[in-house]
Design a protein that fits this description.
2 copies of one chain form a homodimer. Chain A is of the alpha+beta class. Chain A is built from 8 helices and 11 strands. Chain A has 2 domains: 4-133, Jelly Rolls (Sandwich); 148-229, Winged helix-like DNA-binding domain superfamily/Winged helix DNA-binding domain (Arc Repressor Mutant, subunit A), CATH 1.10.10.10. In chain A, 42% of the residues lie in helices and 23% in strands. In chain A, strand 10 and strand 11 form a beta hairpin. The mean pLDDT of chain A is 93. The structure holds a DNA duplex.
DNA sequence: CGACACGTTGAGTTACGTCAATACCCGTGG
DNA sequence: CCACGGGTATTGACGTAACTCAACGTGTCG
C-alpha cells in the first residue's frame, strides 16, 4: 500500500493513467499499489507467467521483449516514465518485461487492477487512450523495421531517442545519451550489433552525428536524418 | 442510423465491442452508426485525415498500412470480422485503412463514438480489452518480422493464416486460401514479392506445404512449420 | 592496474533485392 | 469457343547489403 502523500509528490502524477482519477479514487487505487525498484537487467515479468503484476513506470526505462529458441532477444517495445505495463485481461504474459536502467515502479496485482478498471470508468478510458497510443507507436516501429536499409533504421532510432530526450515536444535534442546498448538497439531494429555500430560510424563520417564516448550522441544534422527515414 | 433489428441479426454480435453493452445502450449506439460496404481496394481512411470514422468490421478483411515517400506500402496490421478500426482520441489518422476483400462495416463518426465511450463505461472496457489484444498481436508481428530469415517469416505467416482459417482455436487448417496476394504478404513481412514466392516454393519442395492454384494452400507438415518459426 | 563488458573495425560469405523473362489466371470481346 | 490483355505469380542470373567470424579498442569498476 502506497501512502497517499506519495501520490501527491509523484513525478508522473499528471501524465500517468491515474491522473484521470479523482483524489478519492486515486487514494483507493493507492491502497492496492506498492512501490518497487528494479535494477538494470532485473525482470518484472517473464513470458508465460500466469499471475503477473501490472505497473506504472515512475522513473527509469523498461523493455518488452521475446526470447526465441536459440536465446536471441527481440525487443518489441520500450516503456518510458508514466507508461503503463502489463497486459490486462490476458491469461498469460506474452513477453518478458525487464529494466533497461534502474527503475521505480508503482506496482499493482493484476486482478485487483482489473477490478479497479471495472469500478472506475475514467481509469478505463485513460488506459484506452494510452493503449491506443501504444498501438500507434508499435505500428510505427513496424514501419521503421519493416522494409528499410539498416542505415535508415539506425537513423530513425536516433531520431526517436533524440525526440524523447528533447524538452520541446517533437523537437530533437542536440545532445543526449543513448539509453540502449548496441546489442539492445540491434535487438530492437532486427539487426546485428556490428551492423548497428557500422551505420553509426557512417552517420558520423558523413557529419550527421558525432559520438561522444560510447553512449553520448550529438545530432548535427537533423534534416538529413529525417530524410533518410522517410 | 442502423435499425435495431439489424443488430439483433448481426453476425459479429457476440464478438464485437458492442456485445458488452445492454440492449438499451446498443440501441443508442445504433442510432449514431451506419452500414457501409467497401469493395476490394477501396479506402476507408487515409493517413493524415483529421476527421475520420471508426468502425466495427462485420465481414471481409481490412489492412492498416503506411505508404512511404517512394510509394512502397507497408502493412502494419490486418483486421478481421468483429475487429475495431480507427484510432480514438488521436487528432489525425496515422495509417491508411483499405479493404482487402469486399467488406461490410458498421461505421461511426469518430467524435460521436468517443462521446459514447465516455458515456458507456462497458464500451470503454470492451475497447480496452480489444486494444490490449491488438497490441499483443502487433508485437507478435514485430517478433515475426524481426526474425532473421525470409523462410521463417513466410512459414510464420502461413501458420497465422492457417490458424485463422481453422475452426478449432489454435489448430491449423489443413487447406485454406491465402487472404493476401504475394505483394501484400511481402508488404506485411518486409520482403519482396519474389522472395515470398521463392520461400513458398522452397516449402513446397520440402513437402511441407502444397500450392493449389495461386492462393490455395495445403499444409502437410505443421510441426516443421512451427519449428522454423521458433 | 587489471578484468570484463561493451564497442569498433575488417575480411569473407550468404541471403535477399533487383532486373528481366516467362507463365498463369480470369474477365472481356471478337 | 478462342484470342487477347492485364494483373498476378514464378523462376533465373546477378549484384549488394547485411550477417558471421575474428581481432582489436575502449570505458568502467573493483
Amino acid at each position: 500500500m502506497i501512502p497517499t502523500d506519495h501520490c501527491a509528490a509523484c513525478s508522473v502524477r499528471e501524465q500517468a493513467v491515474c491522473a484521470a482519477l479523482s483524489e478519492a479514487e486515486r487514494s483507493e487505487l493507492a491502497r492496492i499499489g506498492t512501490h518497487r525498484t528494479l535494477h538494470r537487467g532485473e525482470a518484472l515479468v517473464d513470458a508465460g507467467d500466469d499471475n503477473y503484476a501490472c505497473a506504472t513506470l515512475i522513473s527509469g526505462a523498461l523493455k518488452i521483449a521475446a526470447i526465441d529458441a536459440d536465446g536471441t532477444e527481440r525487443i518489441v517495445a520500450l516503456v518510458h516514465p508514466a507508461g503503463f505495463v502489463g497486459e490486462l485481461f490476458a491469461p498469460r504474459a506474452h513477453h518478458h518485461v525487464t529494466a533497461l536502467t534502474d527503475s521505480l515502479l508503482c506496482l499493482f496485482p493484476r486482478m485487483d487492477y482489473e477490478r479497479a478498471v471495472e469500478r472506475y470508468p475514467r481509469l478505463a478510458t485513460a488506459l484506452l487512450r494510452r493503449s491506443t497510443a501504444d498501438l500507434a507507436e508499435t505500428r510505427a516501429l513496424i514501419d521503421l523495421i519493416g522494409r528499410r536499409t539498416s542505415l535508415a533504421r539506425v537513423a530513425g532510432l536516433i531520431l526517436i531517442f533524440g525526440r524523447g530526450a528533447s524538452n520541446t515536444p517533437c523537437g530533437v535534442a542536440a545532445r543526449f545519451d543513448l539509453p540502449l546498448t548496441r546489442g539492445e538497439m540491434a535487438a530492437l531494429l532486427g539487426l546485428t550489433i556490428e551492423t548497428v555500430s557500422r551505420q553509426i560510424g557512417i552517420l558520423e563520417r558523413r557529419g550527421i552525428i558525432k559520438r561522444t564516448g560510447t553512449r553520448g550522441m550529438e545530432v548535427l544534422d537533423v534534416p538529413s536524418l529525417e530524410e533518410m527515414v522517410d
